[in-house]
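Today's session is about reading a structure prediction critically. Students often jump straight to the picture, but the first step is always the sequence itself: look for stretches that repeat, for charged clusters, for runs of hydrophobic residues. Only then move on to the predicted structure, which in these notes is written as discrete structure tokens rather than atom positions. Here is the chain we will use throughout the hour.
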Amino acid sequence: MRTVILIVIFTIAFLKANAQSNTEYLNGSVSYISSQNVYAKFENTTGIQLGDTLFTLIDGKLKAAILITNKSSISCIGIVLNGFVAELNKALVAKLKPQKPTIEVAAQKSKEAIAVTDLAIESASIKNKGTEPKQAIDGKISLSSYSNSSTEGGNTQRFRYNASLQADHLANTNLSAETYLSFTHKLGAWNGVSDALRVYSLSLKYDLSKTATVTVGRKINLNMANIGAVDGLQFENNGRNFAYGALVGFRPDTYNYGFNSKLLQYGAFVGHKLQTKIGSMQTSLGVLNQTNNGNTDRRFAYIQHSNSLLKNVDLFCSFEMDLYGFVDNQLSSTFDLTSTYVSLRYKPLKKLAFSLSYDARKNLYYYETFKNLADSIFDRETRQGFRFQTTYRPFNAFIVGATAGYRLPTASTEKSVNAYGYLTYTQVPWLNASATLNYTLLRTNYVNGVIYGGNLSRNMYKGKVYADLSYRYINYQFTNPAPDLNQHVAELSVSWRILKKLFLSANIEAAYETNNSWSSRLFLNVAQRF
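Below is the predicted structure for this chain, in token form.
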């Protein structure tokens, strides 16, 4: 009841707000996916900070997708939030806080829209960039609270504390440092610091020259992202057209993500990139040997290729090949294609886009997730296989989109079919809001499900507040003895920029089932930049 009352109160405030929005957004897309991280490509990343959140458009509304742990001038790297399923070229959005331009900005043509203030900041940073290193420090701390309650599972409360810091060219030297820490614990269940603390990055970097760097500590190498974090020594040289590097260190512990001296790994990579007036092409090849207690655990190679040299066409391919394994029940050298991902995107018109992808990577299974049962099933059953997507904007205020997916049956997976469609109108009269209607279909060997939904979203109070109100009816019919799932789900999300560098966000979800059972979830987050 408390959750329902909160939703009603926020809904009234949501509908009565009159102010127009001037929140600015930076559009990007997923450019690479590894087993532990996701990469996002932007025209530039000025204005995006470490510890920020990237969003994706789901059911016509922005949903938190990736927490940024590292970035370069045109890309970001981060960890998945809330079970977000990444796909190559999937659209992402970075929210930029509204600012007044500090310098004059010339209009520039771009494939993607760029905020005026973002161009201003980028122009200023280019002017300030000189041959001598200049210190730049950016950080963020945040506190999050997750509350779950239901008629069947009781009440649970979880807290998470995050801290990130990026310190470039300390004291105007060639030395830089970065860290991202997370501390999570459940109320009434304490298993020690090693279970609660996660160190995602903690490293020092020294610039040997304008292109060569050496890094010590825990860090994810952007050129070998598929292996995740490395505890050790890394060297890389990124030239204009060629890049190469090597690393030696240890994998984080499988169970607590701590340091484990038994998991030694070493490898090298080489890459080539080409930039033209139309687009770019990038290819990289890496080889890595991973050991466990002195014995080779896995030896593999990977190839990654992205290509946008053809107008309006984007291609991405990623392959992994195991080079060591069992042959005739004997451990020896082998060649086994163990992971494949191919994505092709075509945009024949400014308002029309198509994409086709094939995913044969290993699926992800979570020990624990904050997603509800229906969303968890859908994510698990739709990641692998073929997927076709299209979006069309017939008028400025209308957006139509559809997705169809098919997973081939294999030795470890069953056939599944899924579809999703939505219609968005971005200029709802009197409310100055965006409205979306959506439909989801899922067919597998054990469940037949449909979801009907809709939502309203808008920015208020000069872009300082963003609110999103949604409703879904979920009908999952299971072919096994499990009871069917019939739920009415209401959700309200609000984010508020209290001060220039102080932010507060809240997400409330209430679900009611036809058997008179209910559940509610509340997420609160407060973050301070410095």
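Discussion point for the tutorial: The domain at 22-129 is CATH 2.40.10.340 (Thrombin, subunit H).
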